[in-house]
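Deliverable D4.2, example record:
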Amino acid sequence: MAESTDVFTASDSSEDLSPVTEFDYSSIDLDEARKVDTFFTDGCGCKLGPKKSACSSVLSRDLATTVRNNCLQLESSELDLVIFSQLQALRTHPEQPVTCQSSSSSYRYTTFYFHSLRICLKSFLFIHAVSHKRFESLQKHIDSVGLVPRVHGNVKRLPSNTRPREDMYRALGFIDNFSEIHGLPLPGRMPNHRDSDLVILPSDMSKSYVYKKYSENCEQSNEFRFKRRKFEDIWHDLRPNVVTNKPATDLCLTCQLNTDRISKSFALSEEDREQLHVLAAKHLSHARSERHSYRLQCKTATDQWKEHTEKTPRLPYEGEMHYSFDYAQQIHYPFNDQQPGPAYFLTARKCQLFGVCSEAQSKQVNYLIEEADVTGKGANTTISYVHHFLENYGVGSSKIKLHCDNCVGQNKNNAFIFYFLWRVITGREKSITLSFMVAGHTKFSCDRYFGLIKKKYRLSKIDTMEGIIRVVRESSDGYNIPKPTRNTTTHELEVHVYDWVEFFRSRDFQTIPNILRYHVFNLDASNLKVVYLREYSTEPEETVTILKNDPVFDKTLLPSEITPQGLSLERQWYLYEKIRVMCHSNLSRDITCPMPSQSKPLQSKLSRAKSKESSCDSNTATATSSTASAEIPLGSKRPRLCSICSNPGHNKKTCPSK
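Output generated by the structure prediction step:
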C-alpha cells in the first residue's frame, strides 16, 4: 500500500459528507488482481461443470480468491504440506480399490474437489497458487520419498571454495599472538565479569591494520590468505574479546601508566608481571571504593530529604545533606550556533562556570563569573562560592557531606580544611565531611548538569550575559539554577570573593602534613582542635591536631574582600575592535563590547607580533576589523622602536644593549 486519499460522498437524504478512503495498490497487488480477473473471465477450459461447462463458471469467486490469498501468505514448506495433504486424500493407489469391486489397474489418478465441487487440475492449481511444474515435483517427491518435507539439495553441502580448517586456525593463531603482544588487558576485573578476558588493542591498530600485518605474514610464509571480509568474520565470530580501543579524553593517568607497563611486560618474569597486575588492581579497587562511598552518601541524603519533605516539610531539617562542587570549562559570548569563519580565530568575552550540586534536592546552582569579575580559580575564589551557596541555598542541615575532585590549587588544600573547621567552630554545622574522588575517576553529578548546559549552549545564539543566564535556566526543567555574580540590571556585585587564605594565616591554624595523601577529612563539633583523616574511605581513621588553643571566632566576622580588577585596557580595545561586530544588535554591542573610555595604548613590538599572529585569519576577518577600527581614535603617531630592545630613540645599529 502506498498512499491514501479521502473521497467525500453526499447522501440524498442528508447534506453531511462522510469520508471514504481509497488506496493506491502496489504493482504486485495489481498483477494478482489481473490474474484473478483473467482466470474467471477466460475460464479454465474444462467440461466438468453442469451441461459440460467449465468448472470455473460455478466456483465462488470470493471463496476461491480468499483461499488463494491464504496460500500466497504461507511459507514454501507450509504450502508443500497443504498440497501433500490434498494429494494424500485425493489420489488413488494400485493396492487400494476405488470401488467395492477390486481393481487391477496400476494407474494412479487424482480427482480434485473444492468444497464438494469437482474441479479440474487448472482450477486446483489456481486456487492453491501453485505452478504446474511445482505440482509435478511434489507428486514425484511423495511417490519416491513419501509424506516427508522437501529439503533443498544444497543443504549440508559445502561450497566449492571451502578452505581447510588449518587455514582458519592459522588466522586465529595470528589474532591471538598479535593481541598477546600488543593488547592491553584490563586489570582489576572480577573473575565472574562477563568480559573478564577482554583484550584491547591500541586505538591506532584497527582491524585494517591487523589484516595488513596478517597479509604480510601470509606472503612471507607462502600460506593461504583469507580475504579481508572473511578474516573480519572469523575475528568477530571466534575472537569477540579482542577489540580496538576507542579514542577518549580525560582519562586516569595512573590507569594509563599501569596499562602501558602491563602491555610491555611480556619480557618480564611471572612475579614481576603479577606485581604489576596487583598494583593496577589496587588502584582500581580504591577508585571503586570511593565511588561506592559517594553513591552511598548521595542515596542516604536523598532518602532522608524525601522522607522529610513527605512527612514533616514545615519542620527544620535535621537529616544529612550532600553537596558536590566543581568548575566547568569556561564558555564564550557572543556565540552563534552558525559560527562565522573569523570567529574561529578570535577570543570572545569569557564567562567562568562554577556549580554546586545538591544531590538530595536534584538541583545545581551555577555561578556565572563574568570575565571582568574573575579573581582567579584559587582557594579564595572556590571557598567564597561554596560559602555563598551554604549561606544562601543551604537547608540548615547540621551534618553535611561534600565531594569534589582532587585539584590541589582549588579544593585539596589547608585553606579549605580550615574553612570547614571555621564553620563548625562558629556553629553553622555540627559535622562536616569533605571527600575527594580518586584522581582520574572524578566524574560525578556536577558533570551531568554541566552537560545539559553545554548541550543547550551549542544550539543557542548568545550576545550578552542575559543570554547565558537564559541558556542555563532553559537547559533543564528547574534543575539548573543560574546565579550571576554581578546583577545584570543594577550592575552590582552580589557574590563577593574573600581573602580566606590570609584570614586563616593570621590565626593559629596548623597545616596538615602530607595532605595530598588523604581523601577523606572529617570535622566534628565534639573536638574542634582535631581533623579526622582517612587515606581512603575503607582505611582506618587518623587524627591530626591543627589548633593548639581553644578556638574563639566571631560568627559575623568575615575576611577582607578581594576586589575584581576588571578588564585591562588592551582587552577592552580587543573586544571593541574584533568581537563587537559579532553581536546581533547595537544594544548588545554596547553591553558586551562597549567603546573604552580611554584611548588605545601603544603596543610593543612583541605585542604587535602576537596581535598580528592572532589576526592571521580570513580576508573577511581583516575587512571586519578594519571597518570597526575606523571608528576608533588612534591618538598620536606611534614612534619607531628598536628591533633588539623594543625601545624608542635608536635603532638596532646604535642599540646600547647590542
